[in-house]
């Protein structure tokens, strides 16, 4: 693997320091970033208003090799999934979701990307393909930012909404995710505002508090999936470390600091967490925090035995929340694919030996 840092890891300040160390005026930094984020060049040689010498120096200092897309599913108007091979041969996936009414923001012209933050995941939730083979490594800042640029280039779409809901636990790769967010928000970078960026977490309470103290209006989603410790613990081992009371306190702190409503994600799994007692508890928690609830019918993962409840059971649960005056949505078929995204394309690929042999195709 090319050991040079990715040019997409560089904030404006880093670029300015880099150019001034080469006795170039500070405005050169903005020029470089313009080539990357506005003109979207893929080679330093294309940066035609920079001197040959500077282009050479950039090339010696940074990596500018696009993420290799090795597999793609879906098409325009549907959810599209992209499997990328990283420089070290690991795979990650990103998902492009067209107008998605039930998903974090207003309907119609939303183009949402679901980005990964780690290779694998250490948290081992019992419904999630991403954690099945454990954690391999954190993505670096460039690998996070680049998913957006590559998906735009490959799909021809302009993304205006970002959810950190792909593979990995974003708050366990906290520094890199925050630095990526800085580049994503910046006018000199990708230029998507914090209100259009959602971080989803399995509930790392101390990190939620840290994020609350950051001066950015980033949105927060919590993977709840159980409304009592007993049920949540069966689904999410992380609940043994940060139980519901601790998590809810951290969420209350976030809501208070940011003056923002958070979203609880709740996968409905038959006979595991879809009983009306859970609905009642969930409603109580949501009301306390004035949070929204996003119900997600479970997507079967081959390795697990759990099932998606019938439409009727889903509706019972949903209505129980509504009756309690909670703002809830339930993801419909379009969303079905979205969830299948989280780690599942990679898993299929890793388990498909014939594909593994051709993993370095560009
Ligand atoms: N680690 C973070 C972000 C990535 S996973 C977190 O846990 O929040 C985020 C979401 O992926 C889950 O909350 C769930 O909404 C979705 N997901 C993962 N596996 C799924 C499955 N089998 N069925 C439905 N949704 C799933
Ligand atoms: Fe990791 Fe999130 Fe999947 Fe849990 S749901 S295993 S935290 S990616």
Walk me through the structure:
By secondary structure, the chain is of the alpha/beta class. It has helices at residues 12-20, 27-37, 52-61, 141-155, 174-185, 205-213, 229-235, 244-258, 276-289, 311-323, 333-340, 344-351, 353-356, and strands at 68-73, 80-85, 91-97, 112-114, 118-120, 135-138, 161-164, 197-201, 219-223, 263-268, 292-297, 328-330. The protein has a ten-stranded mixed β-sheet, with helices on both faces. A two-stranded antiparallel sheet has the order 5-6. Helix 4 packs across helix 5 and helix 9 (276-289) crosses helix 10 (311-323). The chain is elongated, with a radius of gyration of 21 Å. It starts with 11 loop residues before the first helix and ends in a 6-residue tail after the last helix. The model is unreliable at 333-339 and 353-362 (pLDDT under 50). Bound molecules: S-adenosyl-L-homocysteine (SAH) and iron/sulfur cluster. Iron/sulfur cluster binds at residues 121, 123-125, 128, 130-131, 168-169, 202, 223.
